[in-house]
Amino acid sequence: MSNYKIFQCRPKNYYDLAIYQIGYEKCEKDHSFGPVKRDCYLLHFVVSGRGYYEVRGKVIPLKKGDCFLVIPDEDTYIHAEESDPYEYFWIGFRGTATLQLMEHLGFYVNNNFVFSCNENEFEVLKDYFRKTIDCERPEMDEKEYIRSLGYLYLILSLISRRDSSIPSVVRMNMDSWKEIVEYIAFHYDSPLTVESLSKRFGFHRTSIFKLFQKNTGMSPTEYILNYRLDKALNFVKTTDMPFKSIAMNCGFNSLSYFYRSFKN
């Protein structure tokens, strides 16, 4: 196999999980890529060598037998070790069911984007990845595409057997909701965004949004704004603090925005 191989896929039909890219690379010494934002998920499997993966402020060392997930729309950086650069396969995919699937596989729990396999799993995964890329060719027909998609599902099925101590998304929701609400209650005077909550609790932004919609009927931004306004109203009723001080104490950096929000 050559040192670098990549196939761009063009699914003919719409899939809940669709492959858009399959590749292989034996990296040069000190090879790096990024920081860059991707438009799809990229699942890598390290078959030899070492390196590291940087995402959400975490630097994760990588070795033979590691599967690591590059997530879309966030800055990520990968770097091969100079003395022993890694060699890996990767599959790029996206689709309407992808986020939910990745969450149920545990990748978003505590920003846990790496799966380390044992010796037996290594041989099975290597075989699946190799067969996936062997299905690809410039003029791939629908049957070959479906076969490669089948191997991706087999790979994800094996990953689903990871440590059972990782809680499922369903079991996490209520506990996580309480933690997020408590966090907002203690930090409403600080900068709070969907992005910062996502990074703090290890959920995707979409999942944070759905969690708030389910429990309050509001978006996270609306909930935070209403919480701050309730606190501000309490300050107005119980203290002689000037509006500017109240605004600052309730997390409003713009006095004019505070006035407009308060009047509404």
Brief overview, please?
The protein is of the alpha+beta class and 264 residues long.
Structural summary, described in words:
With 264 residues, the protein is α+β, with helices and mostly antiparallel strands. The chain has two domains: 4-159, Jelly Rolls; 169-263, Homeodomain-like (Arc Repressor Mutant, subunit A, Orthogonal Bundle). The chain is 44% helix and 22% strand. It contains nine helices and ten strands. The protein has helices at 98-104, 119-134, 142-159, 169-187, 194-201, 205-216, 220-238, 243-249, 255-263; strands at 4-8, 18-26, 32-36, 41-48, 51-55, 58-62, 66-70, 76-80, 87-94, 114-116. Strands 1-2-9-4-7-10 form a six-stranded antiparallel β-sheet, covered by helices on one side. The protein has a four-stranded antiparallel β-sheet with strand order 3-8-5-6, with no helix packed on it. Helix 2 (119-134) runs antiparallel to helix 3. The radius of gyration is 23 Å and the shape is elongated. The termini are far apart.
